[in-house]
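Entry for the shared binder. Reason: the reviewer on the internal report wants the predicted structure included alongside the sequence.
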Amino acid sequence: MINALHDKLRADSGRLSQALDNMSKLFLAPKEEKTLRAFSAAEVAELLRVSGGYLRKSHFEGKIPEVAQSTGNKRSYTAEDVLKIRKILDKNAKDPHHFLPGRKPGDKLQVWSTVNFKGGSSKTTSSVHLAFRLAARGYRVLCIDADPQASLTTFFGYQPELDFKEGGTLYDALRYTDGDTIRVPITDVLRKTYVPNLDLVPGGIMLSEFETETPMALSRGEQPVFFNRLGDSLRQVEDDYDIVIIDCPPQLGYLTMAAVCASTSLLMTVIPERVDLASASQFLNMASGVLEVIHGNGGIANYDNFAYLLTRYDTGISTQVDLADWIRQLLGDSVIPTPFVKSSAISEAGLSQKTIFEVDLAGAKNRKTYNRALESVIGFSNDVEKMIQAAWGRNVSNET
């Protein structure tokens, strides 16, 4: 029998925290050492949307600098190399959006929130892969972890329960005034990552306090109100980014609503299973009522997109294939054409806190499985990119 549950929970928390700390020292590389692998010439050509011949010719003619060579005298590019090459090629590009496809004067910041009422729908995995891909494509991307579980934050090599014990998360930029403790500018919690063009605002357990503190803040009329606080923070860094990706908690709470109100587009992950579809329907019904109230109070403007991404999609399960087709017929163009397939390659990468883009090709256990997963991620990311470009009034350029 447990007489003092709070004492047991505190003790268990301490033991787990210490054990995780010890485990990180034994098995995990320090976050400062986490790096992005090099890319092959074929991968770089795909990212730049040029032919392999165009890339080789540019090197041969001295238009772009030489890079390191790997085994077999094959060119090996760091992410910094790719970004440098982008900027050089952009100077003489016929299409001003081809190599540097981000915002131009007059283009509004694109803020995409990934939402779902239910956990386990690959919401975080979709968010982080999309962020990695867009950054590699040349966009300036900010990832915001608005989930107290902070799963997205771990992909960048952090252990939130250890690294942010004393603060340093999104909560500090959203929190309400409490005595001498006040909210800080989002720049105070924004962190550069090991991926060029990709920054992070970490999440952490303290974000759950925002949920409990908001009703009291509303009662005393503290400004800005909850649904304006994240958007207010983003205005501080608006000129520094092209795209913001917000990973929301799997619930329709104050954090999710703050993210939704700060967004220009929403991305809802949906597993093509009956139980998940029922949950999605419930989420949409509840969200419509809540957002109607917020809209009436000036908290929401018009959205560029509300898109559905089919996730954990298994083409080997006939019921999923049938339901996916049914969803596309029902929701039409709102469904992103390319689904995010269920893949052991994605799961295995996630176990080591990596995206599929960070997997060493030489060490991939099953190259066919890896390629299929990579094709899926690139596919749905390209679909989202087209929607972003359309919001700016242009199309994504093809191979030059």
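Summary line for the report: The radius of gyration is 22 Å.
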